[in-house]
Structure formats: C-alpha cells, structure tokens
Amino acid sequence: MSKALKSFPKILWLFVLVLTAVPILKHPQKFFSPTMIEFEGRQYSRSQYVRGEAARNKIDDATLYTYAGYTYIKGEDPTNINFEHPPLAKYWIGFSYLLTGNPALLNLVLFAAALVMVYYLAWRVIRDTNFALITVVIVGNLAILHDHVSEPLLDFPQLVAILGFFTCLFSNHRKKYLWAGITLGLLSSIKYLFPTVGLFFLIMLLWSLSERNIKAFVVGSVAAILTYLATYLVYFVHHPNPLDFIRFELFRFHWWIEGRNQPKFLIFQTLFTGQFKGWWAAVATEIAYGWSLSWPLMFVVQLLSGVFLFRQNKYALTLYGYAQAMMIYYAFGSASYARYLIPLLPFWAILSVWGSKHFIKATQKKRPAPSKLRARR
Predict the structure, then answer these.
(1) What pLDDT, on a 0 to 100 scale, did the predictor assign at position 2?
(2) Helix axis angle, 176-188 to 155-170, nearest 10°
(3) Total structural domains in the chain?
C-alpha cells in the first residue's frame, strides 16, 4: 500500500466498505442475476440501432453498452457498434462480463475508488478529516449513484475519471501533470466529451501557469492525446490509415451537432423538481429517479459558498469554477436528464460542506465568549 493510502484515517476504509455494500443491498438482482449475452445480441440485431426507427424492438442503453463491450473485448472495431461514444467504459463493461458474468459487478470497485477520491479532494479543500468524512457519507448515500453503479452505463465511469483528474492535479506528486493528462485521456475515452473537454485542459493550463510550469501542461496534454488514441488501438488494427480516424472523428462531430433543437435550461427543471417536460411530445414528462431535495439544497449552498473564495484556497476555487462552468454549459447546451448531474453532485457536496464549515466558524466568532456574557450581567 502506498504512503498516500496509509495516511488516510482507518475509519475511512470502514465507511468505504459499508457504503459500497449499499448498492448491492438495494439492487441485488442487478449484480447477481445472470446476463445472457446471446439474448443481448439478438436484441441488438432487432433494435433501432440496426433497423432504424421502424424497428419494433427498442433496447435501452444498458443493453447496447453490454453487447458493445462484449464485442469490443472480442476484437470488434469499436466504431461499428455505438460509434457515438468512445470505447473505454464499454471495454470495462465487457471485461466485467467476461470476468464475473455480470456487466456491472466491477462497478463496485469504481464506487469504492470514487469514495476514496472524494475524501482526498474534500480533505484538500476543507483541511479537516471529520468534514471530509461527512462529505464521503453524503456522496456515498446518493441514490442516483447507487442506481448507476448497478447498471452498465457510462455516466458513473465518467465521474470516476473526473475525480481521478482532480485527484492527480491536487496531489504533490512531481509527475502529477503527466498522470492528470493520462486521466484526462481516459476521461475523453468514456463519453463523447466535446466541447467540455476544453474545460479540463483549461483547468490544467491555469494550474500549470499558477505553478509557473507550462512545460508540465504540454507534457500532460500530449499524454492525454496519446491515451485517448491508445483506447482506439483495435480501430487502428482494422483501419491502419490515420486519415480514416480523422474522417471518423469529423463524421462523429457532425453527427452530434446536427439537428439538435432541444430547449435550453431544462436541467434546472430536473435539478429543482426532479422532472422535466419533454420537447418530443406535448404531455411527456421525464422523471428523475434517484432525485431528492438534497440536490437543489447542495446546489444553492455550494453556490453561496463562493463568498469564501477570498480565502485564497486554490483547491476550492478550482472545484467551484468547474462546477459553475459545467452547469452553465448544461443550461445552454440543452442538457436535461438527471444523469448529466452525476459529474457535479460529489463536487457540490464537497463545496457545500466546505462552505458550511466556514459559515459555522464565522457564526462562532460573532458570539460573545461565555466569560464576557457573565461580565455583562
């Protein structure tokens, strides 16, 4: 075990163990029911992804990613099935199926790792062990995370990669920019991240400038690009010409940006009410399962916590900037579903606890000391 892990309080490992068991207790059938990959393949072959919108059989994302991940592990070109998103998380899903017979079971490893990283980031921001542990408990009890951990989907692995990026960036390791770049490459390889990937490059650039080490940013950027390309090694086996990959990326870019006419600011309906009115039908309402009042509460508290940024806490400023920039992008980028908030909820929890701690301290300073109260009497 590394020195960094040994320095964590022992009670953290108990919290991680208990909280990792929660998704299992809530969704045992999703972790222990057998997955029939042949059936998933037949479902895919009859689905909208093969036969278009006229297909009678519509499959969900979990079925699509499970079958795609299985074929990727078997050597399939990752642009043939579900080209819309990069392949890394689907490789993880396929590996989980081959190793355990269940495409989601290895997500429990990611969940435990996420909780450890939440603690580290919270401690970096708050500088208090107890408050950092409180943050872990809050994040570990988010129902939407339990739901996504138990499904072979992309949003939770994306969150883990984001936590990893900030963990590397906030560390004292002399090669932290290299590792942050590698993690950024992994992040870019999970879900189609353009244009938000630019935000992470900007954060890494600003950190390198603050530490007067622009060379480290260049190293991290090159590492990110090479890591991203490495996740497409199987593609290059099928298509050795690099120009083919550039054409594919341009095609995917146009696929994502064309014909997008969703209303803006729907993400706020989801955040504050747990549902939003769909634009595809007059009476359609999409329910945000896993929603709770803690979401809008954390959003408001973390937003107000910005008043404490004058304390020159670079870690808090970085997470605060990330959280607000992502929400602005979601608002104007027509994000609507609750899953889009998964990469934000743990950071709202960290900032909320950090702001609450400072508010409590400020309140205590304004109270007269007990001795002074007695003197007045």
Answers:
(1) 58
(2) 170
(3) 1
